[in-house]
Amino acid sequence: MPRLPRLKLPNTPLHIIQRGNNRAACFGADEDYLFYLEHLTAISAKVGVAIHAYVLMTNHVHLLATPQNAEGVSQLMKRLGQRYVQYFNRAYRRTGTLWEGRFRSCVVGEEAYFLGCQRYIELNPVRAEMVKHPGEYRWSSYGANGQGDASPTIRPHPVYGGLGLTDGERQAAYRELFRHELDPGLVDEIRRATHGGMVLGSEHFAQEVALLAGRRTQRGKAGRPFKQPAEE
What we know:
Strand content: 5-15%
CATH architecture: 2-Layer Sandwich
Strand order of the largest sheet: 2-3-1-4-5
Number of helices: 9
Structural class: alpha+beta
Number of strands: 5
Protein backbone atom coordinates (compact mmCIF):
# COMPACT_ATOMS: atom_id res chain seq x y z
CA MET A 1 0.00 0.00 0.00
CA PRO A 2 1.55 3.34 -1.00
CA ARG A 3 2.56 5.66 1.81
CA LEU A 4 0.30 8.66 2.29
CA PRO A 5 1.85 12.06 1.59
CA ARG A 6 2.93 13.88 4.71
CA LEU A 7 0.47 16.41 6.10
CA LYS A 8 2.04 19.86 5.71
CA LEU A 9 0.04 22.89 6.79
CA PRO A 10 1.37 26.36 7.63
CA ASN A 11 0.73 27.77 11.11
CA THR A 12 -0.54 24.42 12.40
CA PRO A 13 1.28 22.51 15.18
CA LEU A 14 2.98 19.18 14.45
CA HIS A 15 4.08 16.44 16.81
CA ILE A 16 7.34 15.04 15.44
CA ILE A 17 9.29 11.95 16.41
CA GLN A 18 12.63 10.75 15.05
CA ARG A 19 14.28 7.54 16.23
CA GLY A 20 17.79 6.22 16.08
CA ASN A 21 18.34 3.52 13.47
CA ASN A 22 17.37 0.11 14.91
CA ARG A 23 16.58 2.07 18.09
CA ALA A 24 20.30 2.52 18.71
CA ALA A 25 21.51 5.39 20.89
CA CYS A 26 21.81 8.77 19.18
CA PHE A 27 23.03 10.63 22.27
CA GLY A 28 25.98 9.42 24.29
CA ALA A 29 27.22 12.40 26.31
CA ASP A 30 26.10 15.83 27.51
CA GLU A 31 27.95 17.41 24.61
CA ASP A 32 25.71 15.57 22.15
CA TYR A 33 22.50 16.91 23.69
CA LEU A 34 23.95 20.41 23.81
CA PHE A 35 25.03 20.27 20.16
CA TYR A 36 21.59 19.08 19.07
CA LEU A 37 19.79 21.80 21.04
CA GLU A 38 22.13 24.53 19.82
CA HIS A 39 21.45 23.67 16.20
CA LEU A 40 17.75 22.99 16.77
CA THR A 41 17.51 26.55 18.09
CA ALA A 42 19.49 28.12 15.25
CA ILE A 43 17.95 26.19 12.36
CA SER A 44 14.36 26.45 13.59
CA ALA A 45 14.71 30.23 13.77
CA LYS A 46 16.22 30.32 10.29
CA VAL A 47 13.48 28.28 8.61
CA GLY A 48 10.60 29.84 10.55
CA VAL A 49 9.57 27.00 12.85
CA ALA A 50 8.50 27.73 16.43
CA ILE A 51 9.47 25.02 18.93
CA HIS A 52 6.93 24.69 21.76
CA ALA A 53 8.18 21.51 23.45
CA TYR A 54 10.89 18.89 23.10
CA VAL A 55 12.47 15.93 24.78
CA LEU A 56 15.77 14.32 23.81
CA MET A 57 15.78 10.68 24.85
CA THR A 58 18.73 8.31 24.52
CA ASN A 59 17.56 6.86 21.20
CA HIS A 60 14.86 9.23 19.94
CA VAL A 61 13.61 12.82 19.85
CA HIS A 62 10.15 14.36 20.23
CA LEU A 63 9.27 17.89 19.11
CA LEU A 64 6.08 19.95 19.14
CA ALA A 65 6.46 22.72 16.57
CA THR A 66 4.56 25.15 14.37
CA PRO A 67 5.96 26.08 10.92
CA GLN A 68 5.27 29.41 9.27
CA ASN A 69 5.13 27.68 5.89
CA ALA A 70 4.21 24.17 4.82
CA GLU A 71 7.79 23.05 4.13
CA GLY A 72 9.30 24.49 7.30
CA VAL A 73 9.39 21.31 9.38
CA SER A 74 10.81 19.22 6.53
CA GLN A 75 13.56 21.80 6.05
CA LEU A 76 14.28 21.85 9.77
CA MET A 77 14.52 18.09 10.16
CA LYS A 78 16.63 17.66 7.02
CA ARG A 79 19.19 20.32 7.96
CA LEU A 80 19.28 19.41 11.63
CA GLY A 81 19.50 15.69 10.94
CA GLN A 82 22.35 16.05 8.47
CA ARG A 83 24.33 18.38 10.72
CA TYR A 84 23.90 16.20 13.76
CA VAL A 85 24.83 12.98 11.93
CA GLN A 86 28.05 14.60 10.69
CA TYR A 87 28.89 15.68 14.23
CA PHE A 88 27.96 12.32 15.78
CA ASN A 89 29.94 10.28 13.25
CA ARG A 90 33.03 12.41 13.80
CA ALA A 91 32.68 12.30 17.58
CA TYR A 92 32.27 8.52 17.71
CA ARG A 93 34.42 7.60 14.70
CA ARG A 94 31.60 5.87 12.90
CA THR A 95 30.05 5.99 9.45
CA GLY A 96 26.63 5.49 7.95
CA THR A 97 23.13 6.46 8.91
CA LEU A 98 22.04 7.39 12.40
CA TRP A 99 18.30 7.98 12.03
CA GLU A 100 15.60 5.38 11.33
CA GLY A 101 14.31 6.55 7.96
CA ARG A 102 12.20 9.67 7.72
CA PHE A 103 10.74 11.33 10.76
CA ARG A 104 7.12 10.68 11.72
CA SER A 105 4.60 13.41 12.45
CA CYS A 106 0.96 14.29 12.99
CA VAL A 107 -1.01 17.53 12.86
CA VAL A 108 -2.25 18.62 16.29
CA GLY A 109 -5.49 20.51 16.78
CA GLU A 110 -7.49 22.16 19.56
CA GLU A 111 -6.48 23.13 23.06
CA ALA A 112 -7.00 19.85 24.91
CA TYR A 113 -5.11 17.84 22.30
CA PHE A 114 -2.29 20.38 22.10
CA LEU A 115 -1.70 20.48 25.85
CA GLY A 116 -2.08 16.71 26.04
CA CYS A 117 0.56 16.25 23.36
CA GLN A 118 2.91 18.69 25.07
CA ARG A 119 2.53 16.82 28.35
CA TYR A 120 3.02 13.50 26.53
CA ILE A 121 6.35 14.76 25.18
CA GLU A 122 7.68 16.07 28.48
CA LEU A 123 6.50 12.97 30.40
CA ASN A 124 8.59 10.62 28.23
CA PRO A 125 11.41 10.31 30.80
CA VAL A 126 8.85 9.49 33.51
CA ARG A 127 7.20 6.77 31.40
CA ALA A 128 10.68 5.38 30.69
CA GLU A 129 11.30 5.32 34.48
CA MET A 130 14.39 7.49 34.12
CA VAL A 131 13.03 10.06 36.60
CA LYS A 132 10.01 10.38 38.87
CA HIS A 133 9.11 13.93 37.80
CA PRO A 134 9.69 15.68 34.44
CA GLY A 135 11.45 18.55 36.19
CA GLU A 136 14.28 16.15 37.10
CA TYR A 137 15.14 15.49 33.46
CA ARG A 138 17.60 17.96 31.99
CA TRP A 139 16.99 17.41 28.28
CA SER A 140 13.38 18.49 27.89
CA SER A 141 11.36 21.69 27.68
CA TYR A 142 9.59 21.14 31.00
CA GLY A 143 12.06 23.42 32.75
CA ALA A 144 11.07 26.28 30.45
CA ASN A 145 7.33 25.58 30.32
CA GLY A 146 6.78 24.51 33.92
CA GLN A 147 9.52 26.18 35.91
CA GLY A 148 10.40 29.34 34.01
CA ASP A 149 13.96 28.31 33.13
CA ALA A 150 15.48 30.51 30.43
CA SER A 151 15.46 28.77 27.04
CA PRO A 152 16.52 30.20 23.68
CA THR A 153 14.78 27.25 21.99
CA ILE A 154 11.21 27.47 23.28
CA ARG A 155 8.59 29.79 21.78
CA PRO A 156 5.29 29.27 23.64
CA HIS A 157 2.16 28.56 21.61
CA PRO A 158 -0.93 30.79 22.15
CA VAL A 159 -2.68 27.82 23.81
CA TYR A 160 0.04 27.82 26.48
CA GLY A 161 -0.21 31.60 26.69
CA GLY A 162 -3.89 31.27 27.51
CA LEU A 163 -3.10 29.45 30.77
CA GLY A 164 -2.59 32.74 32.62
CA LEU A 165 -1.99 36.47 32.44
CA THR A 166 1.61 36.40 33.67
CA ASP A 167 4.55 34.03 33.25
CA GLY A 168 4.13 32.89 36.84
CA GLU A 169 0.43 32.16 36.38
CA ARG A 170 1.06 30.23 33.19
CA GLN A 171 3.81 28.16 34.74
CA ALA A 172 1.71 27.38 37.83
CA ALA A 173 -1.27 26.36 35.70
CA TYR A 174 0.98 24.22 33.53
CA ARG A 175 2.52 22.47 36.54
CA GLU A 176 -0.99 21.75 37.80
CA LEU A 177 -1.68 19.74 34.63
CA PHE A 178 1.09 17.33 35.64
CA ARG A 179 -0.62 16.48 38.92
CA HIS A 180 -2.78 14.09 36.92
CA GLU A 181 -1.68 11.23 34.69
CA LEU A 182 -2.36 11.38 30.99
CA ASP A 183 -5.42 9.42 29.97
CA PRO A 184 -4.23 6.11 28.46
CA GLY A 185 -6.68 6.59 25.61
CA LEU A 186 -5.07 9.90 24.70
CA VAL A 187 -1.61 8.32 24.84
CA ASP A 188 -2.79 5.69 22.36
CA GLU A 189 -4.33 8.39 20.14
CA ILE A 190 -1.08 10.34 20.06
CA ARG A 191 0.95 7.28 19.13
CA ARG A 192 -1.46 6.10 16.43
CA ALA A 193 -1.77 9.55 14.87
CA THR A 194 1.98 10.16 14.87
CA HIS A 195 3.01 6.79 13.47
CA GLY A 196 0.23 6.88 10.88
CA GLY A 197 0.81 10.46 9.78
CA MET A 198 -2.77 11.32 10.68
CA VAL A 199 -4.46 14.08 12.71
CA LEU A 200 -4.55 14.36 16.50
CA GLY A 201 -7.79 16.18 17.20
CA SER A 202 -11.56 16.05 17.01
CA GLU A 203 -13.38 14.52 14.07
CA HIS A 204 -14.44 18.02 12.97
CA PHE A 205 -10.82 19.22 12.97
CA ALA A 206 -9.71 16.10 11.08
CA GLN A 207 -12.35 16.73 8.41
CA GLU A 208 -11.20 20.34 8.01
CA VAL A 209 -7.60 19.20 7.54
CA ALA A 210 -8.72 16.52 5.08
CA LEU A 211 -10.38 19.15 2.90
CA LEU A 212 -7.24 21.30 2.93
CA ALA A 213 -4.83 18.42 2.35
CA GLY A 214 -6.92 16.41 -0.13
CA ARG A 215 -6.30 13.12 1.68
CA ARG A 216 -7.76 11.17 4.55
CA THR A 217 -6.58 12.22 7.98
CA GLN A 218 -8.03 9.46 10.13
CA ARG A 219 -7.67 5.71 10.02
CA GLY A 220 -10.51 4.47 7.84
CA LYS A 221 -12.11 1.15 7.14
CA ALA A 222 -10.76 -0.98 4.32
CA GLY A 223 -12.38 -0.19 1.02
CA ARG A 224 -13.42 3.32 2.00
CA PRO A 225 -10.64 5.61 0.81
CA PHE A 226 -10.85 9.37 1.26
CA LYS A 227 -12.58 11.07 -1.63
CA GLN A 228 -12.01 14.73 -2.40
CA PRO A 229 -15.44 16.48 -2.64
CA ALA A 230 -16.25 17.87 -6.08
CA GLU A 231 -16.06 21.62 -6.42
CA GLU A 232 -19.38 23.41 -6.67
